[in-house]
Amino acid sequence: MSNWKTLLLRIGEKGPEYGTSSDFKDHIETCFGVIRREIERSGDQVSPYLLQCAEQLPHKIPLYGTLIGLLNLENEDFVRKIVESVQANFQVALDSGNCNSIRILLRFMTSLLCSKVIQPASLIVVFETLLSSAATTVDEEKGNPSWQAQADFYVICILSSLPWGGAELAEQVPDEIERVLVGIQAYLSIRKNSSSSGLNFFLKGESENSPSEKDFVEDLWDRTQSLASNGWKLDSVPRPHLSFEAQLVAGKFHELRPIKCMEPPSPPSDHSRENIGKQKHDALMRYPQRIRRLNIFPANKTEDVQPIDRFVVEEYLLDVLLYLNGCRKECASYMANLPVPFRYEYLMAETLFSQILLLPQPPFKTLYYTLVIMDLCKVANKEQRALPGAFPAVVAGAVRALFEKISDLDMESRTRLILWFSHHLSNFQFIWPWEEWSYVLDLPKWAPKRVFVQEVLQREVRLSYWDKIKQSIENASALEELLPAKAAPAYRYSLEEGKEKTEEHQLSAELNRKVKEKQSARDMMSWIEETIYPVHGFEVTLTVVVQTLLEIGSKSFTHMVTVLERYGQVFGKLCPDNDKQVMLLSQVSAYWKNNAQMTAVAMDRMMGYRLVSNQAIVRWVFSPENVDQFHMSDQTWEILGNALNKTYNRISDLRKDISNITKNVLVAEKASANARAELEAAESKLSLVEGEPVLGENPGKMKRLKSTVEKTGEAEVSLRESLEAKEALLNRALSETEALLLLLFQSFSAVLKERLPEPAKARSLEDLKSEDENSSAMEVDTENGNPKKRSEIGDREQWCLSTVGYLTAFTRQYANEIWPHMEKLKLEVFSGEDVHPLFLQAIFSALQIPLQ
């Protein structure tokens, strides 16, 4: 990398590029001297790289803004081009709805104002344009209130840029910035509170430490007002331009051109709840809320930090996570060295966990956050002022705090926490003070805390091996009860000493011999149809075949896949319909009852090879043998999630294929048309001259052109046939998806209807908890006769809470695929007097449909 690029990239950091100095002023002066000379040689390279640094390292924006301000003193034309590029990029971001670029570029323009590069009045115009668009959007008559997410985002962008330039705006254009703030207050008075129960981390909607019921925009407005009343003074934003103020004042201001905001779609003509909900969902997907605060720790852990400073540090952390997602070690290093003078390890932990648990989905996979937290724990033991070895303890404290609230945590968030925690422990030798949680053994099997510990231990076994995990809990050896059984398959036909050898044993041994002889699936099926099926019937036949083939493939994943690939046709021929496929899945579950991972993988592979349908998996999940375990284990929910994921991945792959083939068809059409045109041009030269035909091209070229026309025509026809085939497959898949969704929601509705209390007794999930607590708030300690407080709700109530929680989670997760089938679902599942209100409430909250 060139020296000037390294200086730009590493400005403000401790490192060899700037010697021993860590002073921002020294860094800016050094970088300015080099960049000033480099512009003369390769100005076209400097400008885009400087903008790229500012956009992708936004916590350094004040440094880059000051650097550009100094360059403006000597090379106005270069800086004018930078301002024009920023403005053009900002307009492109507005047109495309690129939320991150809009937010960062507006912050960058505000920082350029501080460096006397941008005219304050022109930035105010940008603010007012965004504010006007927001106010129009939420206006009932002129706009489309369903798209309030877009309006809120514009207002958030304005407010979030003020920490970087509010003081300068208040000093240079006090009346104008006051007008903007009054406009924001007016906007807040006409918008609706956007708190959504379907996206909250906790069942109650707020964590116990939450200070208010305000949504994110209202909260940010309060923080901004506090900042303004404090004279726009804050600690978290560096102000390096003040060191060069005497010089920067001589710079020439550059004007910003007017901008144009994207208009939201027109409101639906039919103002039904479903249409409003669909538009609200689309708006939230286009303009998602960046963070939902997770108040894990007591307020005194961050009480020395101003409210606005907390917001700025959150912005820093989320920006680093976003722009350095491909460089985890660099990401951890930047997160540990933010340009703030106070400690923020508790705030960083809350921000990271808020992203892991974010609903409807986090920006990145859980694995990314796992690696970043792991690197932060390691870097904290080596470096810096921000994290003096404290971060591992802070992470442990966050886990303990979340564990205490686990019964109120959203089911999807709980599953993510289990996956993260088990993976995190695997990177630290599975060390954890399990004795702190050994009391969960005294809780009922359905208690959320007990289930959490059980699921974490089971996931750890998957990541290691049984004996290793047993060793890791030796300080709480009683927890061995929650470990899964050793992962031996439950093979019915093993030839153990003293075990009676039945006819089924002989059939299994014969089938095993045929596999070893590598007989074909067709020959094996013929033998089964002639020898086993007529004598023993379907159930015995299925048991023998499944038990034997799975036993052959039980040594590893590879063995199992090989067996399914080679003899999958046997399963397919035996179980052609959903009823028999449900029986097949029950046999697979029985064989691998001691290994949840192999059960899930086997079923997933069977669906991948189309040996079982997604509907069969749904029916198996909701079969009586599994329903009673819904609140005691995540296994069936994992299998259901895998089936839904595979279904929608197929649809996604088909859509991508259709898109690619459509592009190729256009290319083939053009190639075919060009070939025909070239042939026609050549043939046109075979014309009459004075009544005599004249050969215009030689025969060899004519033959080649005709061959090209034939080949391009054939290629076009082939692509069109391929496109038609893919479209037919997509239509079929969409039709199957509609049937799958109908079955899924009908199954949820049926099992919930059996167990939920009467609607009059339970109008919300909180009613389920309070009803059980009131009925038995105290129990008697059987050992000493003293009363003890009952801490867990009953079996049935917990089953209802868990099942409704998973219903909400699946609905929210697959909302994009559910909406196209909403009319059918509403007609056949969601309407009718016998539909329980809690069932509808869970679905409506997940889909953002207004309850009223």
From TrEMBL:
Domain MIF4G intervals: 8-228
Cross-referenced Pfam families: MIF4G, MIF4G_like, MIF4G_like_2
InterPro entries: ARM-type_fold, CBP80, MIF4G-like_typ-1, MIF4G-like_typ-2, MIF4G-like_typ-3
Subcellular localization: Nucleus
Region (Disordered): 761-792
Record bears the keyword Protein biosynthesis: no
The protein, known as: MIF4G domain-containing protein
Species whose genome carries this gene: Brassica napus (Rape)
